Amino acid sequence: MDRLIARTVEKHRPLSVHFDLTYRCNERCVHCYLDHDDHGELTTAECLKVLHDLARSGALFLTFSGGEIFLRPDLYEILAAARGLHFDISLKTNALLVTPERAARLREFDVRRVQISVYSDIPAVHDAITKVPGSLLRTLAAIPILLEHGLQVKLACPLMQENLMAYRGVMALAEKLGIPYILDLTITPMMNGSGGPLAHRASVSSLLPVLQDPLMHACKPQPGAPAASAVNASPPAFGGAVSSGIENLAYEDLPCSAGHNSCYISPYGDVFPCVQLPQAAGNLRREKFDEIWYHAPQLERLRAIRESQLPICSRCEIRNYCERCPGLALMEGGDMLGAYERACALAEEKARLAGVAVPISALHSGREIASFQPAPQAEFASLAADSSSD
Amino acid sequence: MSAPAPVFWQKNPALAWREIDGETIIISPNDSVMHELNDTGSFLWKNIDGRKSAAELAELLVENYEVTPDIALSDTQALLEEMASRKLLVTVPATLGVSP
To answer: What's CA A40's distance to the chain center, in Å?
Structure first.
């Protein structure tokens, strides 16, 4: 896998694609970043054309998500086309609409993995987030159905204020079911830039008990993890998450895989580097995928970014503890190349937990220096900044 | 003892696969294991269509690569059997060759 990632990053091959088929949803999760109204989704024929384009471009790992994918009446037609084009298919769903018949169809199309959002093992907590009474019980009922049909299931649990301490319950649930799970501390603004979901984000200080929990650092092999076979076979690092595999050496001086060997496609055909980086590079109703992928200036600019050249973060002494995201840097700090408060504060806490004596991020050390500057110099810096922006 | 019945080789239809810059990546959905084929392996993979025997595939290898017929046949046979043992390929009776 390392070699494959290195090759595709070097040559900018779109190895992994996250394709949202709809933003419509039968849940109303409090932290969701999507506008659930249908503003003109790609038709079935347009979706199939996108799939042909992606296959021709070398895309292999394909994740269908939403919104809720089962609300697309043509889901099976799309899955059949993806199967015929030999994609590795994963799905993300809340599983409310899973039935034995639907699970059998997914199996028929050789879907490899189904990732299901579960916010807690306590119905009241989960249902308060989804705003659908009874949703946890329905979601959990779907899991054995999918497993019985031979599908791999993975739980995904975004953590926010409402369910912060539920993570142990979700971990225990996954272990009891014998399936892998992923916990996610990322709550993002809406794709239109509105900060509404951020009101549900757990504060950095409230995350400390989670970060300190020895269970989070136990590194036990997760059940259901793919097994490596001999010789030239290896388990894929890609799977549920399109932008996974950041730890790979191929990304060493890159912010992440977005735009290098992965991308995101919206239900309206917009191509983005990542779902968390809402700068559309083009639209598949007007252009072919290759024209966007290989020639869009937005992607070319993104590909030129090197972490070692970031104006603030490159001189940060605790950057090894940081999980800076260029999309969140843009949405929260206004600059894809910049530092942003949330990442810096989290990095400081992680560094502190790892034993760094006085961990201060470059963003905050810059502020501390500025706060001690004699007044005339501060005024000069301010004037210089003003003049350069003219 | 009679000779084994001739067989054609066919890709396992459940697999995900893609040729990327001359190398073929294959993912088996049942066990999530990834397999990579080099240039000649990819050449054979492309030509495995449920209508060719090992000998016919080896002939194609000889036509396109600098390799003797004997080595081509033994290497092809070995690769096909290796891939079959990993459930990447299946055989069909030569009389029942099917579309890929």
So the answer is: 24
Size of chain A, expressed as the number of residues it contains: 390
Residue that has been written with the tokens 């993975």 in this structure: A154
* Number of domains into which chain B is organized: 1
Could you tell me which residue, B97 or B28, shows the higher pLDDT?
Answer: B28
Using a CB-CB cut-off of 8 Å, the residues of chain B touching A58 are 18-21
| Chain B residues whose beta carbon lies within 8 Å of the beta carbon of residue A59 | 18
Residue B18 parent element (H or E): strand B16-20
Asked if residue B85 is part of any domain, the answer here is yes
Chain A touched by B17 (CB under 8 Å): yes
Predicted confidence (pLDDT) per residue in A328-355, tens digit: 999 888 899 999 999 999 999 999 988 9
Optimal mutation site among B19, B28, B33, B79, interface A, most CBs of chain A within 10 A: B33
pLDDT digits (tens, 9 = 90+) for A288-300: 999 999 999 999 9
How far, in Å, CA of A160 to CA of A201, rounded? 5
Asked whether residue B27 is assigned to any structural domain, the reply reads: no
Structural domain including B81 reads 7-12+39-95
Decide: pTM greater than 0.90: no
Q: How far A229 CA lies from chain B's nearest CA (Å)? A: 7
In whole angstroms, give the CA distance from residue A317 to residue A356: 10
- B48 belongs to a structural domain: yes
Q: Is the per-residue pLDDT at A218 higher than 70?
A: no
Over the stretch B3-45, which tens digit does the pLDDT of each residue have? 667 899 999 999 999 999 999 999 987 788 999 999 999 999 9
Residue B90 lies in a domain: yes
Alpha-carbon dihedral of residues A290, A294, A296, A297, nearest 10 degrees?
180
